Amino acid sequence: MNRKQTKAVRVRDVWIGGGAPVLVQGMTKTDTRDVKGTLEEIARYAEVGCEIVRVAVPDREAADAVKEIVRHSPLPVVADIHFDYRLALTVIEYGVDKLRLNPGNIGDRDRVEAVVKAAKVRQIPIRIGVNSGSLEKSLLQGMGRTAETLVASAARHIKILNDLDYDQIVVSLKASDVPTMVAAYRLMAESYDYPLHLGVTEAGTLLQGTVKSAVGIGTLLSEGIGDTIRISLTGPGEEEIRVAWEILKALKLRDRGANLVACPTCGRLQFDMWPVVEELERRLTKVVEPITVAVMGCAVNGPGEAREADVGLAGGKDMGLIYRHGKILRRVEQADMVEEIWKEILAAAEEVRLSGKGAQRSHA
Ligand code: SF4
């Protein structure tokens, strides 16, 4: 897939843009003032593959908490700030790795200049985060809530930063309406070469939010647009990270964890397959090595898929044949299926680990 070339921006030890792998971002849901809770949440995110984490900084107390959060976070930390430039100055001083801040919302030029100056000294980037729910009234009156309005809003913020000779910029143009979001990012990619942070905002609960995100973000990524992604779900943040990885894996942009191939089952099925797949899916969330596991219901497509996978099972009458790298290893009865496949999965994961082929990362 040809990816659009964008400027590279460094965030602690990772790069966004410039051809670096598309990074997975998350945002904590704990009150940032709760340092211990926020760090525990960040650790859980890191475990499932989050690469950059954002925390909300709504007030002075939250800004103060950022000091300890940055110090102990295993991931680069982005501070999300609206309106109050003093909070931005505080978290920059505390060593935050990136800001999400719209300079046009800060007020007078001196304040923006102070933030930009501090960001330059610490060499941290700023994400301009345009959101369809909070567009400037002046733009909305003339243009409505359209893709062009989102881009016009981003252009205003970019100009403010460019006028201060600052270009360590990442841009997002989030809308809850998927076609609007897709059109806005396409337009942005045609007009600028700043790295793009993709997201569908207020996407909803697990099912709807996943579908909207996969369609919106997936469409753009398949066109080579996008340098980092964040899934927004009303639910646990770990699910957001998992969905993000599934999108990247489906497009073969990144590799991490298992790819579970399973047939939908039909009237030819002759063993109890769903519980086997459910249990394997649950266990596979802990596997970080990129391996393919296939569980197939019968002899129609089963042997073909099972043979292609690192570990496969092709079902028969109350039994299945286990495959490893294309070869049949043994026959297993229904009661032993999960444990027998799991043994092979662990062995395949170990092989990958020893070969040194892990998840891609974009270290600076
Ligand atoms: S593999 Fe067999 S059981 Fe599964 S959907 Fe195909 S035909 Fe049906």
Can you walk through the features of this model?
Helix content is 43%, strand content 18%. It contains twelve helices and 15 strands. Strands 8-7-6-5-4-3-10-9 form an eight-stranded parallel beta sheet. The chain has a five-stranded mixed beta sheet with strand order 11-12-13-14-15, sandwiched between helices. A hairpin with a 2-residue loop joins strand 14 (319-324) and strand 15 (327-333). It is elongated and about 75 Å long. Iron/sulfur cluster (SF4) binds at residues 263-266, 268-269, 296-298, 300-302.
Instruction: Look at the structure and give the mean pLDDT.
Output: 94
Poorly predicted regions: 360-364
Query: Strand sequence of the main sheet, in spatial order?
Result: 8-7-6-5-4-3-10-9
Number of beta-strand segments = 15
How many whole angstroms does the radius of gyration measure?
Answer: 23 Å
H and E string? EEEHEHEHEHEHHEHEHEHEHEHEEEH
Number of domains: 2
Which molecules other than protein and nucleic acid are bound? Answer: iron/sulfur cluster
Computed structural class: alpha/beta
Q: Tell me the CATH superfamily of the largest domain.
A: Dihydropteroate synthase-like
In CATH, the topology of the largest domain is named TIM Barrel
CATH class of the largest domain, named Alpha Beta
Q: Describe the main β-sheet briefly.
A: 8 strands, parallel
Number of helices: 12
Indicate the overall shape. Answer: elongated
CATH architecture of the largest domain: Alpha-Beta Barrel
Helix content: 40-55%
Distance, first to last CA: 23 Å
Strand fraction band?
Answer: 15-25%
